[in-house]
Model the fold of this input.
Amino acid sequence: MIRATTHTLQGMEIEEYLGVVVGEAILGANIFKDLFGAVRDIVGGRAAAYEDELGRARDIAFKEIEEEARAMGANAVIGIDIDYEVIGDRGSMMMVSVSGTAVRVKR
Done:
């Protein structure tokens, strides 16, 4: 499955636009990761636990759009947009939303 943030694919012809596909993943951050992230924010540096969770959520959301696109007969998703949100009480959950247009392209 070809994935692109652009609306065209260089050297390929879009034969058919099949529709919008969306994938979402909402993951809770446990208390130990929250505490570690707070300490990391105070002393500086990267919060690897949060980066890992965001990466995992992004992978889930991309997998969902690929499955939905494949079910529509697509071989590519173009115009991909990735959104990150913190939701829940005190920002206790993270959401990643990925959307794009499923298309069939001629290689």
About this structure: The mean pLDDT is 85. The longest helix spans residues 48-71. Residues 16 and 104 are 5 Å apart (CA to CA). The radius of gyration is 17 Å.
